[in-house]
Write a sequence for this structure.
């Protein structure tokens, strides 16, 4: 953030970010990525040491006033008696560990659940899923934390999960769901949808034979293309129309 | 119920209960838990020896005036020539046998049907299904009653089914469907949806390999968390929005 | 039909029948039983030697003015230059052969297609499907007619199919779809939906183990119950609400 | 095109074509054939050496002003700074190689993806899919082009794909999707939907046993029938109603 930004400019940048974050909540609900539980955040556009995330609400019903601001350690900025998500530490830990990540989703898209407990690769098998990256590791809360309520509700657990995520865009959580991380809010939606669809397709293909995963070269070239400005803009237009905003 | 409640207070409590019961009908229809047949009830909030249940209508179209009041033996309170559900005895028998239960659904969510006739465990395999509890027993009307029209339409059959349910939250009915029972109306919706999703996921996982069910500790801790005030409120907000009520 | 019916009464009976037939068209479209092709008819309520069927239109868009009247041999009553369905002879042949049948659907509900070419029983495995009856035979146009355009477009083919249907409520057509026949329009919708769901459930169950079909006694008792006045009225209410008519 | 057409007539022909092309975009989005990516084109109705295709937008949100005109080599006609689809060469190459083709879709309907990498025939197994033709070949970009971003973004790649398509109506693209080609815009929608449904049904049937594909004679006779004026008009009415246009 240039030091020379005026207050009006700052305010506009924050306004645009909040609008996009609220829309992302509704898009992820519409696309059956997130249902009653799960969440999406973005790094603060002017303060990389903070992130924006709704108070504890289902994304389907999130609106502007629900967005809260947190330090990367999950401390609430400002006075607000409303409850934050217990699992907000997933977001903070990843933002801390990954300066390249500016948007994170945590969800339980149903098609991925079987893969959180099976030794079957979720490597992309079609180009639109290439954005999930070549490796999809799984984190099991049992390994470090034993029997829990399955929530990632401390910075310690968040960092443990973040270590499994590593430099990738996706990690699965055994018996729970997934986290997706990307450079911006539109990309993380594309990653989340690509993961959902790839899981469904790998399952369908395995029922009939062998999966031919994309090559490393195909994954790199396809994902670079899809995460470019044009495809992201085109996909965003589509998602917002489906989420009921009409044509922007 | 404190003896000191005034008439206005009683009326408000009943009013709130009826509103919530009608909404539960619409939610269960929207979530494809109940279609033309199936029903949801709640124990009367002021008279634990009675329960509230729609007249014989599909939940999708139930409204306030359709709710009837019954003794736990299924006797209608008051004058009403409209027909009650033949299977209302499922509700009465469970309320009689289980003082801890205040809401019951009976439904035929399609994903569970195969499991009513297979020797495959429906124990939870992901945290959101933990609310169904560790064991999902199956009741077969053939065992005690032979060839029937498959309906649980007497107190005798209701108690037989209730014995299979035992102290749990879910029982399957061979070639028929399921009953779900919980401490309140929002919890029983969460149990019903958790059962539907767990069945679908166990089927999908088995097609590719072995299911890793949650541990006893995970089931207990996760379900205690999910059936807490915050998660129930958050889920309810989501369900009512999807059922067309908009944001409350 | 009593000879003593006045013209007003006759007109009201026909009016009610047409209304219900148009609604049945929309219901079957809404429930994904019929898409662009497929049709539903009813026997004329006052002239058992005639039947009512839309002109060649997709049920989704059928309205009152589209309904035509035919002799059981498929001859159009009255002047009308609009095209009838080429496959109307399915309806006429069944009405001729089965005086107990007053409503017929022909459709291609996707879940049944695999069973039109597999030696796997579609006998009911849950009570709501009991209405399809204990046996679901398959007709193959190849046997008598060789390579065709797959349409049942002559009375000869209609009667051939009707012989396979026999005294039952359902017959499958290899590589094509199904016919459902029942005593009235609401029953034939229940049979069509029961068939669709039973096919999906048998497939899902077989993927995990062995299907436990209902016993003969269960099928008879359940179907007699479901095809009674109360369950049909309750199901109809549900279907019309879902088809967008709101609550009647 | 007769040389004697007046300007008004030409304008009306183009107007009708554009209207239909925009509707086709919305229909294919509604039927889950095309999501954020994928496209549909038609050959220019008066200039067979040109084709009409939206600028780079998701079909769901395409409107009249988005349609561009291209030479068969993919050169934009007229001034327009907006970006075309990178994969427009699929369309140009097929129009060049196949004078009988006047409409093309490129899509990633999910049900077909497994078949792009499996040695399992997608030959039609039910009459409504007969329009895809007896053979469904697969093109693999690796064979001639090695690791790419999976897009068919040059005339060279377009012609390579077109050679795999040959004289057929459908070709699959490994790890990517499909192209469908037909004589007019309504037919290519029917082919696209037939392909989508046939893929889903072959998968479902294989899970239980052996697929009985249609005979050559059945495929030829059924597809000739379905691609006739009446069935196409009836299907179009259905698609446009579902796409939200109401009854035309």
């Amino acid at each position: 953030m240039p030091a020379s930004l005026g207050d009006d400019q700052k305010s506009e940048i924050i306004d645009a970010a909040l609008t996009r974050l609220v829309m992302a909540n509704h898009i992820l609900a519409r696309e059956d990525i997130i249902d009653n539980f799960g969440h999406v955040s973005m790094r603060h556009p002017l303060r990389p040491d903070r992130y924006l995330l709704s108070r504890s609400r289902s994304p389907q019903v999130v609106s502007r006033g629900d967005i809260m601001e947190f330090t990367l350690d999950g401390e609430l900025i400002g006075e607000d008696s409303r409850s934050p998500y217990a699992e907000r530490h997933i977001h903070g830990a990843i933002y801390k560990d990954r300066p390249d990540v500016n948007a994170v989703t945590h969800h339980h898209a149903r098609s991925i659940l079987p893969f959180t407990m099976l030794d079957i690769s979720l490597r992309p098998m079609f180009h639109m899923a290439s954005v999930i990256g070549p490796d999809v590791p799984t984190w099991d809360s049992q390994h470090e934390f034993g029997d829990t309520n399955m929530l990632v509700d401390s910075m310690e657990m968040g960092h443990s999960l973040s270590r499994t995520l590593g430099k990738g865009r996706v990690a699965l959580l055994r018996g729970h769901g997934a986290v997706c991380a990307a450079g911006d809010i539109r990309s993380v939606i594309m990653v989340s949808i690509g993961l959902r669809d790839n899981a469904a397709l790998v399952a369908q293909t395995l029922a009939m034979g062998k999966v031919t995963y994309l090559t490393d070269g195909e994954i790199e070239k396809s994902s670079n293309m899809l995460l470019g400005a044009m495809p992201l803009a085109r996909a965003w237009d589509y998602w917002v129309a489906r989420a009921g905003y009409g044509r922007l």
Remarks:
- Chains B and D do not touch (no CB pair under 8 Å).
